[in-house]
Write a structure and sequence with these properties.
The chain is α/β, with parallel strands linked by helices. It has one domain: Alpha-Beta Barrel (TIM Barrel). It is built from twelve helices and 13 strands. It has an eight-stranded parallel β-barrel, surrounded by seven helices. It has a two-stranded antiparallel sheet with strand order 1-2. The protein is globular, with a radius of gyration of 19 Å.
Length: 402
Amino acid sequence: MMKFMGVAAASAPATLSLNANASTNTSRSLFEETKLGTLTLKNRIVRSAASQYRATVDGDPTEDLMQVHRELAEGGVSLIITGLTYIMPEDQFGNGGTGLYDDSQIELYKKVVKNAHDHGSKIAVQLAMVGPQSNYRTDRRKVYGASKVPHPIYGTIPNQVMTKEDINFAVDAFAKAAVRAQKSGFDAIELHFAHNYLVSQFLFPYYNDRKDEYGGPIENRARFAFEIVEAVRAAVGPEFPIIAKVHGRDYLGSLAGGNTQEENLFVAKGLAERGITALDISGGNKVRGMGEFHPDIQNEKDQSYFADDAKFISDNVDVPLIVTGGNRTPKLMEEILANAKNIQAFGFGRTLLSEPDLANKWKQDPSHRPRCLACNWCIANYGTQKSQCILNASRAYIAPGH
């Protein structure tokens, strides 16, 4: 099968080097309860955030979207993290993307939560700001940015370099959306600080050439993310689970506008100090085409490609970690569990898009090989249609709005 976006892995070979002699929890299993703060999960399999493009034109969830969640819940997933959800209407990222920007949507999302709970899964909503990482309606929407730097893939140039007033407004919007999520009954929220979306762009020197207190050294570039977490934690209280999706490494290099591993660790530590419950570790960049979706990872040596980065954070930050990216083999994942004390769960995207019942299949047969080939057809068509695996492309779904 053709390997779509095959350049993606070229600049970051995935070699797992966890030290087998440093075992800390040798008996931990993929199929046992684990905890993220006050949130108890029935197993360690998490559907990582993946936008489905099944919302209405106003970003409201549909029956079609809930059908996707039902299949995942019935398929054995312990926690569903929804796709990217915009928190203000002027930051809408695409047709069919979900939004949680108004109190009137709370009743709709209560149905989303009940749907997941009734079918056996916990559910979290991922809150984000998109900024220039989308070319959707750029002639109509306010494209916020850290600086006036064109996006290297979309070519989108921010038309609103964020002022201090804009930043304060955005921080408040995150806090209000978090309260809406809490009132909707979500079990947790995830703040998207990765993958070169807006908050991630503040962290990246490539996108951030500001001269104020939000630019320059990492202490300044991390300020926006830190302020968001502080505001969200104050809004939802001390116990409600807040996850942050962050990079372990971006594989760009500081000379090319990236962060060092130590700078990313500074961010992780700062989030933990400000009350984050758990960190979802991903990585990569969208500057040189090295994204978070490595193609052709059939061999174990190419899988779980952010595990070493997560172990580095696990050794230095005492919060639960989810590791997202290329997880394909239960035996390998249990080796990772044995060697990194704070890794508690694994995130899955493409595999569950192809097989929403993968968790149940693995529980019955740990040697089951996922049918996802990491061909990246789903990624190559991301945002242009409803998200689906090419192997499921003939399946009929209810149209958005019906």
